[in-house]
Write the structure tokens for this entry.
Amino acid sequence: MSENQNTEWKVNWKDEYLKWICGFANAEGGKLEIGKDDSGNVIGISNSKKLLEDLPNKVRDVLGIIIDVNLHTDNGKDWLSIGVESYPFPVNYKGQFHYRSGSTKQELKGRALNKFLLDKQGKNWDSVPVPHVSVKDLSPSAFSYFKNQATQTQRLDKSILNKNRKTLIEKLRLNEKEYLKRATLLLFHPDPEEFFTGAYIKIGYFRTETDLRFQDEVHGYLFEQVEKTMELLLSKYLEAQIRYQGISRIEEFPYPEIALREAILNAVAHKDYSSGNPIQIKVYDNHITIWNAGELPKPLTVKKLLVNHPSMPFNPDIATTFFRAGLIEAWGRGTIKIIEECKKLNLPPPVFTDEFSGLQVTFRNPQNKLSGKTSEKLSGKTSEKILVLVGENKNITIAELSQIIGVTERTIERNIQTLRKDKLLERIGGAKGGHWRVL
């Protein structure tokens, strides 16, 4: 036998072991057995009868809970078994909160303590009310986006969508009496970072782990972050290739858009926003990683993400609103959907890992050599080709650039916008009769 989540052995009683009892009460409960060595062998105690009388009162006075103390005798040696139940409310030892984890005792502090206290109250981080903020402080465009999405998916009655913002917030259960919840500010406030540090997305293009070529930050309410991040990935960080099926022109990115979007939505919905860390997306020539702070809720594991599993969102209020907007399914199929979309493109299955106090998904395309860009000033290989071709023919059209380079006209237009913004290319004259000039 060995010590485990529910069993701890001690040779003699010391008052500091009240912390262990506190830890059991805050976790799953368990037994503290006095008079046994580290291997669980009975070595006996001499003051068993006194402890039998004193311990229940001491625990009650210090911890405020009731324990079950039993005296046992093996081969003439006395030992005590202290049974501790799991308590539905937080139990503290002189202001300290201890917790039994595995065969160890931990003192909860910081984020871990906040999460523990919320769990004991039956609350989640995103459901906590925030004072001094009202509906009038929220973004009208965020409400417009939500209403448009919810109208298309029909997951919310039209009569509710036509109500004023205050009523809509109430119907979405995003308030607690007169207060707005944290989820509300993340979903609808124009600047969530005013309240929550790190509530944004960071994207970088890397040649190697240490060679960062350029980066972007995406701020705003969560709906906006998702849309802007997808737009950046598709227009700046990834190059679409073109193939023809009959007369149809088909634009293909090195990774399935549906899978990327699902992964970003998962990161935004399940992130631990108390961490202060932004979601981080790293783009390389042949793979992409998407990381968000947070831990998988028990009993989910990385292995269980790869098969059918129940939906257990880290931020239920955010996830529910995403569901109402039709952005997610809320059936726990997000990871399976990502895997299936990669299979359709004959890509390796994405790799899910829980590391660095967060969850990461990695998409790989060993054959891709065109994703990402090559300098801080240029949008990338497409931009470089545009500059070369315009230098050779100032009257070249967008359609001709698209045909020669082998990317969509939309990609050409996005790259030209970036080149003009960076003052590397300008248009002389109007759309008709004008021409391009490389600066």
